[in-house]
């Protein structure tokens, strides 16, 4: 029999309540990619991870009635709730809706994160209480001021933080007691918050393809990569021998 730390020991909070302010007036979460909304790809990959029991999908209040009619939202294991005005409020709403020992927090606008990454982050959190995927910077950095280069930074040791991030739920609730997510204080992300409270956060290697859709050009990249994945999966399926 599997232990509680092998299957379904975490609920995943998928945050999709933003306003897509940099997407030229269209909603990136609902943008159709290969016939499905962008966020549906994120939810499907997250729910496929063995560590995930349920996905709590957090959306804007005005999207509830539309989203709840989507067939992929009606699948077992997906729950829809209302988000807040800021990301940290939406995350907290999702966390309070969970009752598992661990929570996984994931951006709905990251449809390329694989279920393997979700699983890796969740299992890493079992050891220390929290885990975050990081990708090392590979480009040189410059600081601009009024369109002039005023400084440079050495990229050595610098990493980009991604989601999904996994945290023991009681650690996060303790952090919320000290830093109210509905208060005026800004929360960069939840693993940083619990680290500020003294928790150890385990770094794991993220995925280069796991970009967050932020500007219109990102849609083209995501569409191409998802199409490549689907084509590869179909080719593998067609290559399987058929039974006589």
Notes on the protein architecture:
The protein has 244 residues and is α/β, with parallel strands linked by helices. The chain is 32% helix and 24% strand. The protein has helices at 38-47, 64-67, 87-96, 115-128, 169-178, 190-196, 216-239; strands at residues 10-16, 32-33, 36-37, 52-59, 78-82, 102-107, 130-136, 141-145, 148-153, 159-161, 165-168, 202-205. The strands form three sheets. Strands 1, 4, 5, 6, 7, 10, 11 and 12 form an eight-stranded mixed beta sheet that branches. Strands 2-3 form a two-stranded antiparallel ribbon. A hairpin with a 2-residue loop joins strand 2 and strand 3 (36-37). The protein is globular, with a radius of gyration of 19 Å. 36% of the residues are buried.
Strand content: 15-25%
Low-pLDDT stretches: none
CATH class: Alpha Beta
User: Structural class of the helix and strand makeup?
Assistant: alpha/beta
Q: Give the biggest beta sheet.
A: 8 strands, mixed
Number of domains: 1
**Rg, please?**
19 Å
Order of helices and strands: EEEHEHEHEHEEEEEHHEH
Distance between the termini: 34 Å
Query: In which range does the helix fraction lie?
Result: 25-40%
Number of strands: 12
Under CATH, the homologous superfamily reads Spore Coat Polysaccharide Biosynthesis Protein SpsA, Chain A
Tell me what the CATH architecture is.
Answer: Alpha-Beta Complex
CATH topology, by name, is Spore Coat Polysaccharide Biosynthesis Protein SpsA, Chain A
Mean pLDDT figure: 92
């Amino acid at each position: 029999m599997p232990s509680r730390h092998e299957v379904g020991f975490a609920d995943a909070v998928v945050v999709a309540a933003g306003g897509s302010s940099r997407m030229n007036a269209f909603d990136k979460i609902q943008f159709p990619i290969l016939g499905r909304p962008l966020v549906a790809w994120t939810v499907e990959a997250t729910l496929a991870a063995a560590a995930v029991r349920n996905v709590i999908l957090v959306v804007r209040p005005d999207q509830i009635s539309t989203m709840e009619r989507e067939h992929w939202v009606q699948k077992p294991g997906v729950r829809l709730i209302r988000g807040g005005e800021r990301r940290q409020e939406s995350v907290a709403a999702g966390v309070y809706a969970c009752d598992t020992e661990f929570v996984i927090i994931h951006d709905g606008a990251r449809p390329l994160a694989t279920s393997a990454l979700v699983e890796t982050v969740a299992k890493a959190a079992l050891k220390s209480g929290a885990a975050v995927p990081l990708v090392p910077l590979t480009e040189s950095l410059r600081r601009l001021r009024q369109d002039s280069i005023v400084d440079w930074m050495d990229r050595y040791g610098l990493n980009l933080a991604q989601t999904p991030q996994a945290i023991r739920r009681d650690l996060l609730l303790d952090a919320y007691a000290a830093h109210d997510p509905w208060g005026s204080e800004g929360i960069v992300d939840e693993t940083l918050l619990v680290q500020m409270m003294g928790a150890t956060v385990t770094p794991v290697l993220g995925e280069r393809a796991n970009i967050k859709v932020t500007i219109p050009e990102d849609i083209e990249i995501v569409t191409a990569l998802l199409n490549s994945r689907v084509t590869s999966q179909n080719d593998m399926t067609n290559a399987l021998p058929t039974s006589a």
